[in-house]
Amino acid sequence: MVAPILRACRKCSRITELDVCPYCNEPTSRDWQGYVIINDYEKSEIAAKMNIRSNGKYALRVR
Ligand SMILES: [Zn+2]
Fold it and tell me: Which of 4, 22, 31, 58 is deepest in the core (most CB within 10 A)?
């Protein structure tokens, strides 16, 4: 089993395996650090801080 290379969107920070973010159509980057899982974005302070408006997995820092 080969683990997929995860990438992060430069715009919304969402983590994906795709070269282009499926949510905002921006190119993704392999150079990112840390991630946070948002299960309830309406109640999450991190989501509010990062401007996240849906649940999912997001990189903390994308270069
Ligand atoms: Zn995106």
Answer: 58
Is 37 among the domain residues?
Answer: yes
Measured in Å, residue 13 CA sits from the centre of ligand 1 at: 6
Question: In this predicted structure, what is the pLDDT of residue 2?
Answer: 77
Quote the number of domains for the chain. Answer: 1
What residues contact residue 61 under an 8 Å CB cut-off, 6+ apart? Answer: 32, 33, 34
User: pLDDT of 1-60, one tens digit each?
Assistant: 777 899 999 999 999 999 999 999 999 999 999 999 999 999 999 999 999 999 999 999
* Cα 39 to averaged position of ligand 1 atoms, centre (Å): 18
Query: 18: CA distance to ligand 1 center in Å?
Result: 11
- The rounded distance, in Å, linking the Cα atoms of 25 and 29 is 13
